Amino acid sequence: MYNRYKIKDRGEKAMSFRPSGKVKAMWVALLVSLTMMTSVAWGLTVDNVIGMYQAKVPASVIIQTLKSAGASSNLSLADVKRLKKAGVPQEVIDAMMPSKASAAPAPEPEPEPEAETGDEVSAEQSEEEKKIAEAAKKAAQEAARKKREELKKARMKEIARRLAKAEESLAEKDYVQSLKAFDEFLQSDDQTPEGTAQAQFGLAESLFGLGLYANAMVNYEEILQTAPEENPVFEQSFYRFRQCSQMVSYEGLPGALTDHYIGGFNPAFQDSYHYFLGKLFFAAADPERAKLYLEKVEARGSDYARAQYVLGLIAVNEAEGDFGGLIKANQYFQQAITLAEQEVYQEELRRVIDLSYLSLARIAYTIATDIPDSYDAAIFYYRKVPADSTNYIEALYESAWAYFLKGNFRRGMGIFHTLDGPDWKSYYLPDTHLLEAQVFLNLCRTQFAQEAINRLEKKYLELKPTLKLYLETYEESIFEAFVQKKLKKGLDLPRRLHLSVLADSRFNESYMNVSRYTSEIQSIEANREIFGGELTERLLERAKDLVEQGKELLSQMIIQVLREREEELDSLDEKVERMRFTIEDQNAQRLEKQIEDSYEGEMAVDAEEAENQNTTNLLVGDKYQTWPFEGEFWEDEINSYRSYLTNQCREEE
Question: Cα(527)–Cα(537) distance, rounded to whole angstroms?
Fold first, then answer.
């Protein structure tokens, strides 16, 4: 029983008490209880409960402790007998049985206190029991916390083991096994943020190793949505994402990539990152945002040359023929070439070099309208494009126009006649015949001009009706008709037009995408048994979506190219009509000249024409009938072919 507070000094109290024997027993009981709970950590045994009761712990405290510790079990008959024999109250036994959860028992009756102090003892005892119960509850909670920590550590250890096993398969290039292991982890509930990031990257790497680039690209893109500071695999994922985009064209926008801060990465990575974003914006027809990133690329690596080339293309579009704008574009292409032609980059950047020279030639060709000497510069740059370049025919064809406009008809005609040979019969170059007809007219060789027009009509203009019907018939099913050859009544596109579409770079890129997606579907299907049904279906779903998107884009591209061909043929038809009029006019003038000469007794015109015919010497064949090289040409000499046609125009007196 507590003693009353004693006032020692004014304004100061000292709580001085001596616990009674009963209260002392209760504190001892608490210590016993806590010791027992700590020893069992998670639950209380029959012996624990008996020990607590024998230590004079009140029944209410024992029940509260059982509830806090979550301790309940199916007591056997022997356990119940032991508890009853030890004197444990029935309400405590009920609390230990999960099927007999009962209301909290009433406190055990205490001996009647002395009349003058009964209320005080009861209040003090009740307060003390609360403290004991609270302490027991905290002890149980602490025990539960420690148990959870132990389980978490065990779980983390198991996660690390599983990921390590998957990483081991990946390192050994057992991509199927690593793919299944990483996917199984990602589909489970047993994950952590760190483990998830590691597994996502491992899954993407496995797909990349299997050549499933479309699926891999989707996974890398998902990883890149997380900010770099929170993503330990951001840099590796970006490089892989860029690799995938080179194998399977990426048609999307940078998205979250523009929100990331990458200042903490090395300079080479920053250049690669900025170039890639700039290129995506350029492809999306957003030149302003493209320039924002491309101009950040420093002159210290291969991406600088690529960035300068794209900046040059943007400058050409913005110039719209303005001299100053074209000169600015010219500088971008020159800078791209300067870096790309360094020995360390030549092989890697060969295409950038070819395209930059082609662009320089086109700029010179454009400004030659005002500065004729620029045709020489255009020809110089055109000849910089090597014969094994995919852009060689473009450069050769355009250089012929430069020769023609410069006034060197023989050189231009030599190239055009060469392009009309067997080695280039699949190329769609109708203007070659139009230009040769014009050259013949300039030389007053109307017969040759008429033959050139006839060739143009037979090879190209006769395609117009079939092309129009083809577009009307298949506009809604162009992919099936053009690619899969699902034809209606046998109506097909003429071979020359079909090849012209295949040679178009826009079609080629879209077609390659669809082909890769289709191959990926076949590969996934072939491994269905190994991958398992669920994983196979998820991989197929992504690839099939990409195939459908690719088919739609490819269909649009085919229609676009064929519409352009239709417009070109219509334009050619109009030019041919004008040229026919010019031919007739020249023939009329010639007839007039013949009549005039006949009156003067000069009838040597026929003999002169025959002589001139004999002097006609086209090194690649007379009048396109004989090809002495049997379809093969010396590539290093093509630019040197010349036509030695004589001029039959009447000299002005």
Answer: 11
Query: How far out from the chain centre does Cα 174 lie?
Result: 25
Asked if residue 78 has pLDDT above 60, the reply is yes
555 CB neighbour count, 10 Å cutoff: 22
Model confidence over 223-255: pLDDT tens digits?
Answer: 999 889 888 899 999 999 999 988 887 877 888
Cα–Cα distance for residue pair 334/394, rounded to 1 Å: 20
Residues 452, 623: Cα–Cα separation, whole Å: 9
Answer for the pair 91, 59: CB distance below 8 angstroms, yes or no: yes
Question: In three state form, how does the secondary structure of 207-271 look?
Answer: HHHCCCHHHHHHHHHHHCCCCHHHCCCHHHHHHHHHHHHHHCCCCCCCHHHHHCCCCCCCHHHHH
- The overall average pLDDT reported for the chain is 79
Question: The tokens of 158 are what?
Answer: 């198991």
What is the Cα–Cα distance from 133 to 107, expressed in whole angstroms?
A: 13
Question: In this structure, are strands 6-9 and 12-14 parallel, antiparallel, or unpaired?
Answer: antiparallel
pTM: 0.66
Q: Measured between alpha carbons, how far is 422 from 629 in angstroms, rounded to an integer?
A: 10
3-state SS, 461-494, equals: HHHHHHHHHHHHHHCCCHHHHHCCCCCCCCCCCC
Beta bridge partners of 643: 618
pLDDT over 90 at 68, yes or no: no
**Do residues 434 and 411 touch, judged by C-beta distance below 8 A?**
no
Tell me how far apart the alpha carbons of residues 576 and 583 are, in angstroms, rounded to a whole number.
Answer: 10
**Residue-wise DSSP of 424-462:** GTTS--THHHHHHHHHHHHTT-HHHHHHHHHHHHHHTGG
Q: How far is the CA of 436 from the CAs of 252, 410, 575, 609, 652, in angstroms?
A: 45, 10, 13, 19, 24
Question: Per-residue pLDDT tens for 134-168?
Answer: 887 788 788 788 877 776 666 666 667 778 888 89
DSSP, collapsed to helix, strand or coil, labels residue 643 as strand
Residue 57's contacts (CB-CB under 8 Å, 6 or more residues apart) are 26, 29, 30, 32, 33, 132
Look up residue 392 and give its two tokens: 């060689």
Stated as kind and residue range, the H or E segment containing 9 is strand 6-9
pLDDT at 314: 95
- Calculated CA dihedral for residues 272, 278, 280, 283, nearest 10 degrees: -140
Give the burial string for 273-309 (b: 16+ CB within 10 Å, else e): bbbbbbbbbbeeeebebbbebbeebeeebbbbbbbbb
Joined together, the tokens standing for residue 474 give 């298949």
CATH of domain 304-407: 1.25.40
User: In degrees rounded to 5, what are phi and psi of residue 111?
Assistant: -60, 145
Of 239, 248, 305, the closest CA to residue 272 belongs to: 239
Residue spans per domain, the chain: 17-104+123-147, 304-407, 473-603
Residue 632 phi/psi, 5-degree rounding, is: -120, 140
Do the beta carbons of residue 332 and residue 345 sit within 8 Å? no
Q: Is the pLDDT of residue 315 over 60?
A: yes
Take residue 482 and report the two structure tokens written for it.
């053009």
For 104, the token pair is: 């909290």
**CA–CA separation, 342 and 354 (whole Å):** 14
Q: Terminus-to-terminus CA distance in the chain, angstroms?
A: 147
Is 642:411 a contact under the CB 8 Å cutoff? yes
